[in-house]
Amino acid sequence: MVRLDGGTFRMGSQEFYPEEGPVHERTVAAFAIDRHAVTNADFAAFVAATGYVTVAERAIDPDDVPGAVEDLTPGGLVFTPTSGPVDLNDWRQWWRWVPGASWRAPEGPGSTVDDRSRHPVVQVAFEDAVAYATWVGKRLPSEAEFEYASHGGRGDQRFAWGNEPYPGGVAHAHTWLGRFPYERVGDHGGGTAPVGSYPPNGYGLADMIGNVWEWTSDVYTARHAVPRGAAGTDFEPGRTTKDGTCCHGGAPHTAAAVSPVPLRTIKGGSFLCTPEYCYRFRPAARSSQSEDTATVNIGFRCAR
């Protein structure tokens, strides 16, 4: 873990998406945070020691999803590249519900993590992340802690590394390069990368941006709840660059749930983020996800 002294920073952005505002001053106390996301090897040790069964592996009770019309076999959401250009307003074009997908088999039956021990664990719901954190005597970071840490001490920059997404044409985080969601450049996008594949930020933290979205402890709100007395700047209408549910998908764990599920804030963006579609590989970016959702591009790290 890396220990951070904490401090006051300007949280949020008024340049991109409405949910990132208002910009305001936020203070976080000293805390420690994992150098990188929890890996498959880490999570496998937890499961071996406790016998824990993740949300994506549990049988689904039909009474929990009255009116469901789809298959209620346990599973998770898996990214599937398209064969060519599609309507980027419809995330269903590249996300599919795969029965049997889990942290052990992220893309579904036949896939494995045997050769991905240093990749971040995925297909984990919020409850799974909390269970692991509790087992190791830690907790999930708050949204404010995550954003503070992801800046790496460069709070005046749009990105964790500067003001340009790809300075000098170089990617500083594991995101999608190419035409989304069907054409990618090299190893960028399409799947996770081993933790630490890109240079750490100014605090020595790896992959706070890109690779996988990460769960935080905060219940999601459509706008930042500004602390009483904090200075703030509201969002400027008309400056949004993109819209939509972004690159993590929007379906709940059951793929057919009709009852409300609590939403949590996820941070950091993932290997599916790209300026063409999802400009959320920035410290200020945030999105919502239902607590019982497991996808191939959401993981977590711990704090204390």
From TrEMBL:
Gene3D superfamilies: paralog of FGE (formylglycine-generating enzyme) (3.90.1580.10). This is Formylglycine-generating enzyme family protein. It holds the Pfam family FGE-sulfatase. Residues 1-304 form the Sulfatase-modifying factor enzyme-like domain.
